Amino acid sequence: MNTAGARGPGGLRIVRLANFVTPASGGLRTALEELGRGYLAAGHEPVLIVPGSSARDERTPQGRVITLPGPVLPGTGGYRVLADRRRLTGLLETLRPDRLEVSDRTTLRWTGEWARRARTPAVMVSHETADGVLRAWGVPAAAAARTADRLNARSARAYTRIVCTTQWAEREFGRIGARNVVRAPLGVDLRRCRPERRSTALRARHLRGEDVLLLLCSRLSVEKRPGRALDALAVLRGLGVRAALLVAGDGPLRSGLAHRARTAGLPVEFLGHVSGRERVADLQAAADICLAPGPAETFGLSALEALACGTPVVVSASSALPEVVGAAGPAAADTGEAFAAAVRALLAGPERERRAAARSRAELFGWDRSVAAFLAAHEVPEFHGTAGARA
């Protein structure tokens, strides 16, 4: 295992902060790991600081990972936050970062002011839209927009750069006239996620006698709208489509969704958290169609992974995913009926063509491109040096 942690000559120490990361979390954890690997390979020294149940300091393939004890945020299904500001400040002062990268636009926004006082260039990565999350939690659209504008204005003032992964995510900063916003897409592992992983035996095992295998690969929380996948399944079954739904993921809504499926007699299999990216890729390749109903998604790594596995995705028209999947998957209005209609439209076309289109789209998104864009946001050259001790 590559456990390098020190930067090479000419490289920089890039300290990254993130909340809401657990061993069971998905897209954010994947992005942090892949970017860390890329920074390390480019000769820099990535240091990731995350919350956990106890303190740890490890050397990993993505660089150094420091875990600080952090409390569980109620109602989030186990997410923790870096709440000890004094301890985190002391650690940052000890690390003396050359660059700071923050993946939490709420509880960690104060670190932008710390970076300014320390004269450290800092970027905040917008992994979700503020108004989208607020609307997902039931805040009326007008109030959500006003609150988001205030939060975004503070973030734009606090950081050297705001990094958005899609044009869709960038719009809410354009609305307030922020001039320090740059775009950097995320990526997908095209070697791990590939159509050749498709297993007819695995597909048959989860179909359980039905004809069409749908997959929802998502955290089961309110902002992801997992219930819409069950809505779509119920509509499809009512129209005579013998579809089954496989759910890979866990979260606070799981018990309610499972009860609903049992009560309605819907063929839904809940796998819970699926550990191991290889196993997740096998499921994504085995499915006929994946569903991505989250209306506040700003990129959608799981959807992109499904495309790389050759599986088309039906996405929420309200999210950034239509921008990511392009013609490889239809965008549906946020109703079960619309998602069911999109599934039927995909099924009406030749399977080989829809799977080839999915893979072709995913091939536009490699992690090398993403790493280069993030380093450019840091105004760091793509230096490739030999790891060495930091002076």
Question: Nutshell version of this structure?
Answer:
It contains 15 helices and 14 strands.
Give a description of the structure.
This protein is α/β, with parallel strands linked by helices and about 400 residues long. The chain has 2 domains: about 15-185 and about 365-375, 3-Layer(aba) Sandwich (Rossmann fold); about 195-360, Glycogen Phosphorylase B (Rossmann fold), CATH 3.40.50.2000. Helices cover about 40% and strands about 20% of the residues. It has 15 helices and 14 strands. The chain has helices at about 25-40, 85-95, 110-115, 130-135, 140-160, 165-175, 200-205, 225-240, 255-265, 275-285, 300-310, 320-325, 335-345, 350-360, 365-375, and strands at about 15-20, 45-50, 55-60, 65-70, 100-105, 120-125, 160-165, 180-185, 210-215, 245-250, 270, 290, 315, 330. The chain has an 8-stranded mixed β-sheet with strand order 3-4-2-1-5-6-7-8, with helices on both faces. Strands 11-10-9-12-13-14 form a 6-stranded parallel β-sheet, sandwiched between helices. Strand 5 (about 100-105), helix 3 (about 110-115) and strand 6 (about 120-125) form a beta-alpha-beta unit. Helix 1 (about 25-40) crosses helix 15. It starts with 12 loop residues before the first strand and ends in a 14-residue tail after the last helix. Mean pLDDT is about 90; it is low at about 1-5 and about 385-390.
